[in-house]
Amino acid sequence: MKSLLRLGLALVVLCFGAAGPAPALLVRAGTTPDRLASLLISIWPEYDRPEVLFVYRGELAAGTALPARITFRLPVEPTFAAGIDEEEGVHGLRPAIVRDGSGVLVTCETSWPRFQLEYYHDALEKGGPARRLAFVYRADYAIDELTLEVREPFGVADLALTPPATIQSQAEGGLTEHRRLVGPVARGDEVRWQISYTKRDPRLVSEALDLPASAPVRYDEAPASSVPRREAGERATRALLGLGGVALAGALGLWLRGRPASSARVSAPAEGHAPASRAGGRGTLREGRLARYCHWCGASFFRDALYCRKCGTPRRGSQQPRRSRARRR
Ligand SMILES: [Zn+2]
Fold this sequence. Notes:
Blueprint: H1 2-19, H2 23-28, E1 35-45, E2 52-60, E3 68-74, E4 80-84, E5 90-92, E6 96-100, E7 103-110, E8 114-121, E9 125-127, E10 130-138, E11 142-151, E12 160-162, E13 167-170, E14 176-185, E15 190-198, H3 205-208, H4 229-242, H5 247-258, H6 261-267, H7 274-279, E16 284-285, E17 318-319, H8 323-327
Parallel strand pairs: 1-11
Antiparallel strand pairs: 1-2, 2-8, 3-7, 4-5, 4-8, 6-7, 9-10, 10-15, 11-14, 12-15, 13-14, 16-17
Zinc ion binds at residues 294, 296-297, 299, 308, 310-311, 313.
């Protein structure tokens, strides 16, 4: 048994060595782009928490070599980070977080040209029913097309924006969405948006519209790569082929079984080598409070989905184990 394990280990070392650099090296191998094709920043005050939900959706400039390392300065740690592939598949990313003055520098390596970051920030000034948000975005990159967007909170009739929005549209629950097309910005440019409104109905959008309570999957507990089943299967096949054939699978399986679960997690590459990362990828779903439709794009969810298959947004009401108590305020 012991010698079998050693054989398996040797094979694994051999094949990983032949297949390319170690995962740790891959993390450093990404290119650092200097521009983005587009960035949409969505600002949702009092949506499903009393704070403001910020969602960044970006796309790398055409021709950016992948994987690419992207860095954003945020006021707080993100609650979600993902790369989005051409077929709208969502790939959870685990960003590196570095303190930077009053905020954090969030660095993700993405193998896909589109990405998404989310965070909640206590950015509202509240004086009785009066609310004010002075949003400042300091461009992390040169961006060809920057767009800002505010979704109205529930029960608000007097939302004022300075400067005014370019376009208005209807979002879920008949709430108005205000979009401002900023256009191209240079790295370091500051874009400001003053948002003010009066809110006498204390309910959050999620309460008023009876949406599930917020429990987005945290990046550090999200599956390393959450891909549709079919794609995950192909990926697994590819990974096995890369390891030198199906014969190795048995030895690898034995070896993996012998390893402590924690070390398997830590050393698992960010994506690819699907079996190890996929095993912990399903998470758990709280039945009964799951969103049936994506709050972002309206697509219906598959029964056990953690993310929208169409746009990649985390499903409201879904959560990973251990998450709810740790983060509930
Ligand atoms: Zn969606």
